[in-house]
Write a structure and sequence with these properties.
The protein has helices at residues 9-18, 21-38, 46-49, 61-68, 107-113, 117-123; strands at residues 51-55, 58-59, 99-102. The two termini are 31 Å apart. The protein has one domain (10-125). It has six helices and three strands; from the N terminus they run H-H-H-E-E-H-E-H-H. Helix 2 (21-38) crosses helix 6.
């Protein structure tokens, strides 16, 4: 029995065009920020502000870094973060077409203890970002 590969370049390209990954990434960015608040992970707002999308048109890292720089003082009035607490921008490699990242250097530990980014991806309603082919 012969199995035919029906995943031709044309079909794959049509599928890529059907999914608006930029819209999905922007939605996940917004939802991740909301999840940080819902999770009670806000002290200064730095980590929430540091979440950004990398789109086909470019990274939103600079905007996130600028917003995050205004969130450096904790609820107790003590300085917590500084501009150096923002990691470098994520870049798209290989076949990646979009990404969402949290730039606060400590966000990895926050994600591990109480997910905000992966949970946002799980909350994504694919029907809202898929167009009919």
């Amino acid at each position: 029995m012969t199995i035919r590969n029906w995943y031709t370049t044309r079909v794959i390209e049509a599928a890529h065009q059907a999914v608006n990954l930029d819209a999905a990434a922007l939605w996940v960015e917004g939802q991740a920020k909301a999840n940080v608040g819902d999770n009670g992970q806000v002290d200064t707002g730095f980590m929430r502000a540091s979440i950004y999308a990398v789109l086909s048109s470019g990274s939103r890292h600079a905007e996130a870094a600028a917003e995050a720089s205004g969130h450096e003082v904790g609820k107790d009035g003590r300085r917590r973060n500084k501009s150096g607490d923002m990691a470098s921008s994520v870049t798209l490699t290989g076949n990646a077409r979009a990404a969402v990242a949290a730039g606060a250097i400590y966000s990895f530990w926050q994600e591990r203890s109480n997910s905000f980014l992966l949970r946002a991806l799980e909350q994504l309603d694919m029907q809202s970002v898929v167009r009919r082919i």
